[in-house]
Amino acid sequence: MALEWIVVAYAAGAEAMMLLLLTLPGSNPLRHGLLSVTKTLLKPFLSILPFCFLLLLDIYWKYETMPSCKTLNSCSPSENLRHQKSTVKSQRNALLIAAAVAFYWLLYSVTKLVDRVEQLQFQIKKSAKNE
């Protein structure tokens, strides 16, 4: 199960790096090349969304099937510690899923916006040459 989380973490990291590089001011030559790379990678990164949904269902299933310690003596200290660790890992993984989805949405929005800005700049240069 750890491999799935590694994939989500690397995808979220790659999305964050592309988002950071696209929004850096004054990097026009880099931005043009990164824009074309990002536009081609948006479709493969879209597969992270259903993947995150399935991992979220896995977290929910683990939460629903987790045994509960109703009384103080019903669980041993090691079981109690194991359940607490599982809860912390589930919370961490839920944050990772939220970050991956948020970074994808931001990357999609920023890529669309930067592409539109470059198109408008091209039209301005084209109209300036015609005058």
Automatic annotation (TrEMBL):
Is Zinc tagged as a keyword?
A: no
Query: Domain named BAP29/BAP31 transmembrane: which ranges?
Result: 1-125
Q: Which residues form a coiled coil?
A: none
Q: Which UniProt keywords apply?
A: Endoplasmic reticulum, ER-Golgi transport, Membrane, Protein transport, Transmembrane, Transmembrane helix, Transport
Short name of any one Pfam family annotated for the protein: Bap31
> Domain of life, per the record?
Eukaryota
GO cellular component terms given for this protein: endoplasmic reticulum membrane
One Gene Ontology term from the biological process aspect of the record = endoplasmic reticulum to Golgi vesicle-mediated transport
Query: Where is this gene product found?
Result: Endoplasmic reticulum membrane; Membrane
Please list every transmembrane segment annotated in the UniProt record, as residue ranges.
6-24, 45-63, 94-114
Please give, as recorded in its UniProt entry, the membrane topology of this protein.
Multi-pass membrane protein
Give the UniProt family note: Belongs to the BCAP29/BCAP31 family.
Q: What does this protein do?
A: May play a role in anterograde transport of membrane proteins from the endoplasmic reticulum to the Golgi.
Q: Which PANTHER family match?
A: BCR-ASSOCIATED PROTEIN, BAP, ENDOPLASMIC RETICULUM TRANSMEMBRANE PROTEIN
What is the name attached to this protein's record? Endoplasmic reticulum transmembrane protein
